[in-house]
Write a structure and sequence with these properties.
Elements lengths: L1 E4 L12 E3 L2 H8 L5 E3 L2 H33 L2 E6 L6 E6 L1 H10 L9 E2 L4 E3 L1 E10 L2 E11 L2
Parallel strand pairs: 4-9
Antiparallel strand pairs: 1-2, 1-3, 5-7, 6-8, 8-9
């Protein structure tokens, strides 16, 4: 089924593209959330007419994300975890731990936007990427220390 994407979707495509997706994915996920429109000639015409308005909204979201990214880049988070004898953690630092640390510093970020790339399982400083917008990625330094 061909659809017009109204937003950038990771692993699917970019806003404004006409992509072929499975019908169930379109009916059950994309259409109800307003992420896509069926690619009919009428919808293509309407989308082209509204493209300027959509681009302005997209630019506003990107600017807001860039402002938040600038705030996040100045933040360093310390997270205390239990460690074993070999300086490795019992478990790992999770996205929820990082989101809670950011919230304590005054920056609200959805935990699903935090990319841990395999997790944090050792002590020390680790750079963590936060995907705020498809075009804006912030980096936060997370320092894992031993819990006393």
């Amino acid at each position: 089924m061909n659809v017009i994407l109204m937003r950038d979707l990771r692993h699917t495509g970019h806003r404004g593209e006409v992509v072929d997706v499975k019908p169930g994915f379109a009916r059950n996920y994309l259409f109800p959330k307003g992420l896509a429109l069926e690619a009919t000639p009428g919808n293509l015409k309407v989308f082209e007419q509204q493209r300027e308005k959509i681009d302005a909204h997209h630019a506003k979201e990107r600017d807001e994300a860039a402002r938040i990214a600038a705030q996040l880049s100045a933040i360093r988070i310390k997270i205390a975890k239990r460690v074993g004898e070999s300086e490795t953690l019992y478990g790992s630092v999770t996205a929820t731990d990082i989101a809670d640390g950011l919230a304590a510093k005054g920056a609200e970020v959805d935990r699903r936007r935090i990319d841990l790339e395999g997790g944090i399982k050792t002590l020390g400083e680790h750079p963590v990427r936060v995907h705020l917008h498809p075009e804006v990625v912030a980096e936060v330094i997370v320092e894992v220390i031993a819990e006393e």
